[in-house]
Please model this.
Amino acid sequence: MQFSVASAYGLQAMIKMAEAQKYQGALLSLPELTDEHYFSDDYMERVLRQLRVAGLLKSGRGRYGGYALAKPAKQITIKDIFEALESDLYPYKCQAEKCQASHCLAKEVWDQVYVAIDKSLQKLNLQSLVNKKINHK
Model:
């Protein structure tokens, strides 16, 4: 299974915003979110728009505009981010409607993989990632 580039960009941006969240009300501009990662501004704007529509980000316009987390980093799981940016987190697109087997053992494998991924992504939140970074310094 492979996540999209949008998830990679979105996760990096969300981590950066979680790190900046300690400065209450601080909005990060698009250049601040893209500079060190060499992300395309146009692509990143689309990613950020998806995260905003999902209720994970808030944005402000104007000279001091930018983006910030819409809620505390502790309340945003990595699953929330990936769900906002991926069409589906299920690891395999089964052709179940075409399948003639009454009980598909392969689907049971994919279901178990999905459950493991789901649990892992729900357990991690932005604050836990920021804390790990601080503890590793």
